[in-house]
Amino acid sequence: MTIDRCVCIDTTFDSLLRRARAGGLGFEALCESTECCRGCTLCEPYVRAALASGQTVFDAAAPAPAPSDTHPAAPCYRHLP
Questions:
Q1: Which of 12, 17, 40, 80 is most buried (most C-beta within 10 Å)?
Q2: By three-state DSSP, how is residue 5 classified?
Q3: Furthest-apart CA pair in the chain: how many Å?
Q4: Is 26 exposed, middle or buried (0-12, 13-18, 19+ CB in 10 A)?
Q5: How confident is the model over 12-63, as pLDDT tens digits?
Q6: How far is the C-alpha of 45 from the C-alpha of 50, rounded, in Å?
């Protein structure tokens, strides 16, 4: 089984990566413009890895890529008061 998309917005990491590259978007701007990583947040390490490495399909048997130390653990709550 492979992991290749943000299930909350049903968008592949490949599509997100292409959008980020086309618009010169970093992680935060990509999340704001697409709402990826805003629901369950399980895709965050994969989206970050895709932006950093270009890899857009991940093996479900492998551990998730390590999250960034500069981003809160629960990004979906950062926009709440």
A1: 17
A2: strand
A3: 38
A4: exposed
A5: 999 999 999 999 999 999 999 999 999 999 999 999 999 999 999 999 877 7
A6: 9
